[in-house]
Structures are given as C-alpha cells and as structure tokens.
Amino acid sequence: MAPGRTQLVAESALISLSPDPVAMRLRAIHRAAAEQRRGTPVLLEGEAPLVVLAAETAGARGLADLAALAAAPPVLLLSPVRAAAILRRPVASSGAPSGTSDAAAVAFRAAGLLDPALLRGVADPTADQLLAEPPLLTAVPAGAEAALVLAKLARLLPAMLAAPARPDAAARAATFDLLRVPGEDVLRHPAAESAALAHVAEAHVPLADAPDARVAAFRTPDGGIEHLAILVGQPESLPDGQVPLVRVHSECFTGDLLGSLRCDCGAQLRTALARMAAEGAGVLVYLAQEGRGIGLVNKLRAYALQDRGLDTLDANRALGWDADERRFLAAAAILEAVGVRRVRLLTNNPDKVAGLAACGIEVVAREPLVIPPNGVDDHYLATKALRLGHLL
Q1: Quick one: 18-189 is in which CATH superfamily?
Q2: What backbone torsions phi and psi does residue 356 show, to the nearest 5 degrees?
Q3: First vs last Cα of the chain: how many Å apart?
Q4: Is 391 helix (H, G, I), strand (E, B) or coil?
Q5: CA-CA distance, 392 to 371, in Å (whole number)?
Q6: Model pLDDT, residue 19
Q7: Tens digits of residue pLDDT in 83-116
Q8: What is the pLDDT of residue 271?
C-alpha cells in the first residue's frame, strides 16, 4: 500500500533532521573556537592528544581544567615569528599550575608574554635571519599546528598553552564537560568551511554607487561566518565573450563603514562598485576576513603597534600572524555559486590573482584599482607596494 501523506511528511522530517557529518564537524570546530574565547580548554585528539587553552583568555578556572587533563606541565606554543621576537630578550619561565592559587600566576605570566611591548625589535632585519636558523627546541609537540590554527579561528592571538593529555583524558573531558575535537579536523576546517558554503538569502539593494545591485548571503551549515556577494546587473548572463569585472574585497569595518583614512579599503570598495555599474555588470565578493584575516580586535592591536613605529606587515607578524592570513576558497565557491567562472579581477595584488586562479577561477585579466594616497595612508600604501608586492 502506498504511504499516506502523514507518513511521507514524517519521513521527510526524519531525513531533514538526520545528522550531516560535514555539518557536525564544522559545528564542532566552531564550538571549539568559541570555547577558546571563553577561556575553556579543549582536547585535541590525534596520535599524541593535546589539551590546549588560549593564553589570551586563560584564567584560573581554565588552567585548573587544563591541569586535570594534562599528563605534564603545559608549554606555551607561539608562531615562529613571535617566538623569535620574545626569545631575543629575557622572559621569566612559568611552571605548571599545581592548584588554583598558582593558576592565576601562570595566567599572569602568560599574559606578560603577550605584551606587544616585548616585540619592538621584530622589525629589525635580524628577525628574518633568526627565523632561518635551526629551531631552539629539538621537539615540537605533535598537534602544535592545529592548536595555533584553533587560536586563529577564534580570532585570538596565536599563543596557546598546551600539554600532553593523560591516557584517560577523554573520559575526564566528559566528566568536566570539555569539548573533544580531532586535530586533523581543525587543520581541514578552513577548506571544509569554504566547500560547504550555501546560498541562503538574496535581495535587490540599490546602492549609491550601483543602483542595480543585489546582495546575496552565503554561510555554512554550522551557522558560522557569513560572506556576501554584491551582484551589479546580470554578470552571470553576459553574452559569450564578455567577462565581468570582479573584486574580491575583504571586509574592513574601519575603512568601509567608518571612512578611516588609515587605509584605502573604503575608497576601493566604492570605486569598484561604481566601475561595475558603469560597465553594467560585475560581482563584488565581500569576505568576512577583517584585517587581512586576523579579525577586527587584532587589527586594532596592529594599528597600535603601527603607531609605535612598525609597518602593517611587521605589526601583524609581531602579534604572531602571517603578513596575510586571507584565503580565497570561499571567494571561488561564491563565484561558482553565482555562475561566474571567468573574471576580470579588480586588484593591485598579484597574490590575489594567483590565489583565485589556484581555486579554479579563470582570471583572464587583472584590472588595476589604484586609489591615490590621502596624506594619512601614504606609508601604508608604500608598504603594500614595497613589501607585499602590490602593483601601485
């Protein structure tokens, strides 16, 4: 007998509620990053499991939980460039937390290691030479890379307290209600997140620089960060032989929204939209990658270091980040989703051309998007040209 309507509805509901393995893994990493922001340790599972806790948010409770799962005293994991800067000057050693009273002291010392004042010499030419020398440690804990990636996903400073896990750490983690995630999933998360992006909303939004514009939103099944596409005209329906203008623009709260003069981002955003409107079609992919991928809070920290003499590249490195942490898989996925696979890319950054091409998008031409200096961002633009290779 054919199933009735009620049975079909019930079966459809069960199918829609069945767990999606990819979504579950994405959700677990999203939760792990949130735990780091809360100052709660996470168990990174793998061949050599680690208990990890972001040094920036470590407090007495988090350190006590870490000690309960740890088989040995924790070490402080730093990105290579930050470790190089810190190890050039004396730093007080910190022992393992033996109790709640000691935990606060350890957290204080860890916070001291994060003080940007320790990093004034990072711009010296000898910093690169130091990084080229053999590492000072003969063994780096397995899982260290995943721990630092987790800190970056949380948009915290890349500095993690880490300790080898006890043999019964998994059972103890359940008792303490602490999260367990595979380290390999953390490392794969950025690529997996981009691959899972889905179109969730779209509306016509007339803009001052592009009246015929639509804004489309994309996000992953875990409900994480959302990226946008601003479609001017009908770029997906151009006649054969015509290739639309495309800009991959990383969000800049200070420049795009506040009109900051420290960068050219806001002017680039508006100029790109105006050029697309003049041509009648284009796509501006608006990625949630503030501060070249380090997040707004860390960008403000980098600004503070720039006010003390570092340039934009060295300020990022002083905080433990690479000069550019952005990824372009999400941009490629969004362009594929809106039906644009061949582009004329509006950018001054050759690395962006190469990055997008490596993700499967055909860049048939690079279109310059040069904004004149405004008297405040002159040094910033010069640094982008001289040290980051932008074609200005």
Answers
A1: DHBP synthase (3.90.870.10)
A2: -70, -40
A3: 72
A4: coil
A5: 9
A6: 56
A7: 766 655 443 333 333 333 344 334 434 444 445 4
A8: 97
Cβ neighbour number for residue 272 with a 10 Å cutoff = 26
CB contact at 8 A, 193 and 224: yes
> Among all chains, which residue has been given the structure tokens 């804004």?
215
- Mind giving me the DSSP string for 295-306? -HHHHHHHHHHH
Which active-site residues does the annotation give?
324, 326
Q: Which stretches in the chain have pLDDT values below 50?
A: 1-18, 89-114, 116-139
For residues 138 and 290, what is the distance between their CA atoms, to the nearest angstrom?
35
Domain with CATH 3.90.870.10 in the chain: 18-189
DSSP letter for 254, please: I
The encoded tokens of residue 83 equal 């470790």
Structure tokens that stand for 2 in this block: 């054919």
Question: Whole-model pTM?
Answer: 0.82
- Just give the CATH number of 197-289+326-387: 3.40.50.10990
Cα(261)–Cα(371) distance, rounded to whole angstroms?
Answer: 12
285-298: per-residue pLDDT in tens?
999 999 999 999 99
